[in-house]
Each structure stands twice: as C-alpha cells, then as structure tokens.
Design goal:
- The chain has one domain: 3-Layer(aba) Sandwich (Rossmann fold).
- Helix content is 33%, strand content 17%.
- The protein contains 7 helices and 5 strands; from the N terminus they run H-E-H-E-H-H-E-H-E-H-E-H.
- The termini are far apart.
Length: 163
C-alpha cells in the first residue's frame, strides 16, 4: 500500500554520500542554512526566493546540539533534526537537505562550493560564514529581504506568554 512506503520527499534528505548527491545537482547551485525549527510562511517565501537564484537549492540544517549552542532558548529546538529536515525536504523549492553540527556551516560550504550563498535580509556578506570564500571563487552572496515578519523565536514567545 502506498501509505506504507516512505514518502518520496525523504529521498531529498542526504545520507552519508552527501558530496556525490551535491555533485549530481545542476548548476548554478544555491546554498542556505538555518535552524528552521517551526516552519512558517517566512521560511517558505525565503526558500522559494533562494531557489529562483539557481538550478538547485541545498539547505543545511543546524543539528540539535548546534541549535542549543546558539542559545535560542532552553527549549530549542522544538522539533528534532529529523523532523526539521523532513519538513524542508517536503517543499518543492528544496532539492537536497543536509545537516551540520559545527557552529557555522563554513566547512560544509567549502566542501560543497555553491555558486550562490543565500541568507535572510538581516545578514550581510561581512556577517555570513562562507560568503567571502564563495565570492572569492567567483560566486555571489545574496541577502533575501524579509517579506513576512515571522520568526520561530517570536512564535515561541507568543505561545509561552499568557494572554
């Protein structure tokens, strides 16, 4: 039965052969990263806009330990890494989802060598890990402006405050 087989979108969650999977993607390759804890319309817009900058979009997701090191709050992440990766993989704009456990995705960016590095509108090339390296190789950095003023931190605050 169809409902008993794993969903097709899980094929976009990269296993151990991540570099081979990335090499098979069409160029220009777009890369972004983040926590993506509670997926909201701001994330959906951001990822769709990022995907429009190239022929494939790779999304790197902070591991649970990496999120805790970011000090986003004592109950973060809310969703596990596997759940966050699966939800991102279910989006049509996303071609591949990978995780990283370092404080920044710089080692991953150096391995993958994206053509375009994307972050949200609150970042600049100077504040983004890997931007200088991508630009030095002839790639570009793009900060996508926020169309929807949403954040997981604001959602968590709203849920935890009494009305």
């Amino acid at each position: 039965m169809a409902w008993q087989t794993p969903p097709r979108f899980l094929q976009k969650v990269a296993p151990k052969d991540v570099l081979a999977r990335v090499a098979a993607l069409p160029r220009p390759l777009v890369f972004t990263n983040g926590v993506f804890d509670l997926l909201h319309c701001g994330h959906a817009h951001y990822l769709e806009a990022a995907r429009c900058l190239g022929n494939a979009l790779v999304v790197a997701v902070n591991s649970d330990d990496s999120v805790r090191r970011l000090n986003k709050g004592k109950h973060r992440p809310i969703n596990t890494l596997d759940d966050r990766m699966a939800l991102l993989a279910a989006l049509s704009s996303v071609d591949l989802v990978i995780s990283f456990d370092t404080d920044t995705p710089l080692p991953l960016i150096l391995q993958i060598s994206p053509d375009v590095l994307v972050k949200g509108g609150d970042y600049t090339a100077e504040t983004t890990a890997g931007a200088a390296e991508v630009i030095a190789r002839g790639g570009k950095f793009v900060a996508i402006p926020f169309l929807f003023e949403r954040s997981t931190t604001a959602l968590v605050k709203k849920l935890s405050s009494p009305e």
